[in-house]
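Weekly structure sync, notes
Attendees: PL, DS, HV (note-taker this week)

Item 1: DUF3040 domain-containing protein
DS walked through the input record. Source organism listed as Amycolatopsis dendrobii. Sequence as pasted into the shared doc:
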Amino acid sequence: MLPHRDRSALRKIEEELAASDPVFAATLSQGVPPVQTRRWQKILVLAEVTAAMMLVFGLMAGDTGWFLWGLVAAPLLVWAHRTMLQRRREPLAGDRT
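Item 1 (cont.): predicted structure, written out as tokens:
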């Protein structure tokens, strides 16, 4: 247990940080994202890279099927990734108001 003087100094630093940069303070208080979220982010990035490779392969090989599947998959995966990131950031927007 910290002495009263140290606790009040830490509380003061915390208040100054929250006043100067509320988004950073909220990020620090939120902590590390769960393993499940990080795993899904990695899977989505891998799927986005795969869709981009399908587009390139379809163009280079002249295979319309690969190109069209990549063309359909890429924007859907980017949308899913952006939606996941927005949902994760929503509590931060609520803290600022």
